[in-house]
Design goal:
iron, heme binding, single chain, about 55% helix, electron transfer activity, 2 strands
Length: about 140
């Protein structure tokens, strides 16, 4: 009976350890790919050869979205910025925010009228310089 218990624990440890290692290797690949940094990704070809493909760099006007964490919830498709799907695409925010929220975008970024953005920006307010960078980038995005 004692040997059966020891064998059970050995197999349990091996099983959990293998599962842990397997899950960690998958999460490391996922964690590095969508970073929007200049990381390399692999792409399979028709002959199953792996070719290293550099990830797209964040444009200079889009860097503010990366720095402030906006891309965790939002995308800006017109600037080529892929982000989260929780919030709307911000490509036309420069044009649409005033009609939707009743104030110009620079005022909205200082004091948002939506509950979600109030809590997000309230916890990490933008400086006037950052607001100007965001507004300029969104203006560029709306013109594309």
């Amino acid at each position: 009976m004692k040997n059966a218990i020891i064998i059970f624990f050995v197999f349990a440890l091996v099983g959990f350890g293998g599962g842990y290692l397997f899950s960690q290797s998958g999460s490391q690949e996922q964690a590095t790919a969508p970073d929007n940094a200049a990381t390399e990704q692999t792409q399979n070809t028709a002959d199953d050869e792996k070719v290293e493909v550099p990830a797209p760099a964040v444009s200079s006007e889009g860097e503010i979205f990366n720095q402030k964490g906006c891309l965790a919830c939002h995308s800006v498709e017109n600037l080529g910025l892929q982000g989260g799907a929780t919030g709307p695409d911000l490509s036309q925010a420069y044009v649409n925010v005033e009609g939707k929220h009743g104030k110009p975008i620079n005022e909205f970024l200082k004091e948002p009228t939506s509950a979600v953005m109030s809590s997000v920006i309230g916890g990490n307010p933008l400086t006037d310089d950052e607001i100007n960078k965001v507004v300029e980038a969104l203006k560029i995005a709306s013109e594309k």
